[in-house]
Predict the 3D structure of the following.
Amino acid sequence: MSESNMSLFDLLLLPITGPAKGLLFVLEQIRDAADRELYNTEALERQLMEARMLYELGEMEAADYERLEAQIVGRLTEIRRQQEGG
């Protein structure tokens, strides 16, 4: 097909492919945002500090703090391991 025929073909399929491409773009943006949040060590460290403050102020039970701390530290360890390539 020549270049002009391909453009016409693309134009004719636009009502079908346009929404699909738009949806794909939106899904990629959501994935990228989720990845940024998932691998955001600063946010995890902030959560850990907040949990520690709540625990020290007596607003969080020791068992809850220990469970949350283990989850956050485990996640931080996993992220750092992935960043190091291992």
User: Anything to note?
Assistant: The two ends are 47 Å apart (CA to CA). Residues 40-86 form one domain.
